[in-house]
Design brief:
This protein has 3 domains: 180 residues, Rossmann fold (3-Layer(aba) Sandwich); 161 residues, 3-Layer(aba) Sandwich (Rossmann fold); 177 residues, 3-Layer(aba) Sandwich (Rossmann fold), CATH 3.40.50.970. Helix content is 35%, strand content 15%. It contains 22 helices and 19 strands. 52% of the residues are buried.
Length: 581
């Protein structure tokens, strides 16, 4: 199987073929509509309620489907594809347990505003509500974690519903949309009438162009500010506004801190970048927020991991909040200047009017702080340190690879020590913190970016939640480099138990974990291992030189902690600095 190319254009010949008004089944309508929406890869897992759909795929040379080994693998792969390409990711699962296995992935995408179109089968229309075999009310179950849901009642509605679903998923504040198709509807026939005109849904009209009067207030506040800070979040990446943010920061001379979801939205090599803020943020970024007289929050939602104790967050600052979702403004933090709109549109307009802040002395202070309080750790010649592994990966890739992570200590070390240079180069579960996300999301990222290096950084806990997807990499020769930061323990839980629960370690030891090298080889994937610096350099280079997928088991120090750390309930300037304290 060849890896897809998301840049491929729907040819006029194929489009004409797809648009023919044949009398076809709902399943054939679904496949045609997905192709007309520009979908080049669907991730899925078959089952009884979607067998007509999978039957329609048989012998269809235009439709590309990737079979995963678990429905959660399918939706996480679709998520990774969406985050790295900017296109809506698509996955398919059957009814009942197939659909409910998608719920964690739907919630993951919802929390991080990722555009997905999730297609589930359901029992036949006549059986809905009878507790039929493998029936579950998936539209009801996912109501809190979808942007919108459809239960298809008539086959004639499918073209409109699919077209609307893609529009809803990828406009406004992006997110997952679910389409539930009863089995009989997927087999009913009708004359295909494609829907291609612009979508108009009553009650759905997201604000994209900002109120210019509010932007003027923001610019006036900038011009008078002496200690301004930009807090940039995932909205910058989602809106493809990285260039506009860079231009804005340089024009106004405001230092920038990027949230976990915003990493890559501003180049880490730039002198105005201060690092990540929050619970495991840099000293400079956290102190700058606390001392700022103006805080511009751009496309971020004031997550508790960023703010710490809200009662002591940015106490000296006038706060500007820019977001496409008006529900976020004022939800967690009192805002002085609210601006609703698309981040890219706003920054494009602001860049025509913006003037420099009075920030010269502030910038000098920030630069000195970066020199005085860099991210650091105590290196060792006897034990392999996880931070060293991340630095090694960063150095070899020059910050240009696509990095996916699972959740835990390795996630924070990747955020701290990998220097992201481009938007859409970090794929991580920020809002929900979903273990098992990292590796399958890398498969989707690689499918959407066949010419880029994709590195999946995982803990030895999270990788065991999705290791069956190694088969997908082996069979399809998907060349993801799978890194395991193996400390033989649930590292972040252990760290909290050490620092907050007085070293009362409870159920965190991962004894009995497999030999990951043998596990990889059992699936047909090359496996390597390192426990020293010298070995790490050697096996990582071997992995890079190998054209197919490779798993590398880095055996690191068990008791290493992530620092700095702001404990829950503390303010951002109450940091535990660890080794550097």
């Amino acid at each position: 199987m060849s890896i897809s190319n998301p840049e491929q254009v729907l040819t006029e010949e194929l489009k004409a073929k797809l648009m023919v008004p044949d009398e076809i089944t709902g399943s054939e309508i679904l496949l045609r509509c997905l192709l007309l929406e520009g979908v080049d890869c669907v991730f899925g897992y078959p089952g009884g309620a979607v067998l007509y759909i999978y039957d329609a795929m048989h012998g269809n040379p235009d439709f590309h489907h990737l079979l995963t080994r678990h429905e959660q693998g399918a939706i996480h792969a679709a998520d990774g594809y969406a985050r790295t390409t900017g296109k809506a990711g698509v996955c398919i699962a059957t009814s009942g347990p197939g659909a409910t296995n998608l719920v964690t992935g739907i919630a993951t995408a919802y929390m991080d505003s990722v555009p997905l179109v999730v297609i589930t089968g359901n029992v036949a229309s006549t059986l809905i509500g009878t507790d039929a075999f493998q029936e579950a009310d998936i539209t009801g179950i996912t109501l809190p974690v979808t942007k919108h849901s459809y239960l298809v009642r008539h086959v004639e509605d499918l073209p409109r519903i699919i077209h609307e679903a893609f529009h809803l998923a990828n406009t406004g504040r992006k997110g997952p949309v679910l389409i539930d198709i009863p089995k009989d509807i997927s087999n009913h026939k009708t004359v295909f009438k494609p829907v291609t005109e612009p979508v108009h849904i009553r009650g759905y009209n997201p604000t994209t162009d900002p109120n210019k009067a509010q932007v003027t207030k923001m610019l006036a506040a900038i011009a008078e500010s002496e200690r301004p800070v930009i807090l940039a979040g995932g909205g910058v990446v989602s809106a493809d506004a990285g260039y506009e943010l860079l231009k804005f920061a340089e024009k106004t001379q405001i230092p920038v801190t990027t949230t976990l979801m915003g990493l890559g939205g501003f180049p880490s090599a730039h002198e105005l970048w201060m690092g990540m803020p929050g619970m495991h943020g840099t000293y400079t970024a956290n102190k700058a927020i606390q001392d700022a007289d103006l805080l511009l929050c751009i496309g971020a939602r004031f997550d508790d991991r960023v703010t710490g104790n809200l009662n002591g967050f940015a106490p000296k600052a006038k706060i500007v909040h820019i977001d496409i979702d008006p529900a976020e403004i004022g939800k967690n933090v009192k805002v002085d200047i609210p601006v609703v709109g698309n981040v890219k549109n706003l920054l494009e307009y602001a860049n025509t009017k913006a003037k420099q802040a009075k920030s010269a002395a502030w910038l000098a202070h920030i630069q000195q702080s970066k020199l005085d309080y860099p991210l650091t750790y105590t290196d060792s010649d006897d034990e392999l340190k996880p931070q060293y592994v991340i630095e090694m990966i960063n150095e070899s890739t020059k910050g240009e690879a696509i990095i996916t992570t699972d959740v835990g200590q390795h996630q924070m070390w990747a955020a701290q020590f990998y220097k992201f240079q481009r938007p859409r180069s970090l794929v991580t579960s920020g809002g929900l913190g979903t273990m098992g996300f990292g590796f399958p999301s890398a498969i989707g990222a690689q499918m959407g970016n066949p010419d880029k290096l994709v590195v999946s950084i995982n803990g030895d806990g999270g990788i065991q939640m999705c290791s069956q997807e190694l088969a997908v990499c082996a069979i399809n020769n998907i060349p993801v480099k799978i890194v395991i930061i193996n400390n033989q323990v649930l590292g972040m839980v252990r760290q909290w138990q050490e620092l907050i629960y007085d070293k009362r370690y409870s159920h965190i030891d991962l004894q009995g974990s497999p030999d990951f090298v043998k596990l990889a080889e059992a699936y047909g994937v090359k496996g390597l291992r390192a426990s020293t610096k010298e070995e790490a350099q050697k096996v990582w280079q071997e992995a890079l030189d190998t054209p197919g997928p490779v798993l590398i088991d880095f055996r690191v120090r068990k008791y290493e902690n992530v620092y700095p750390m702001v404990a829950q309930g503390k303010t951002l300037d109450e940091m535990i600095m660890g080794d550097a304290e």
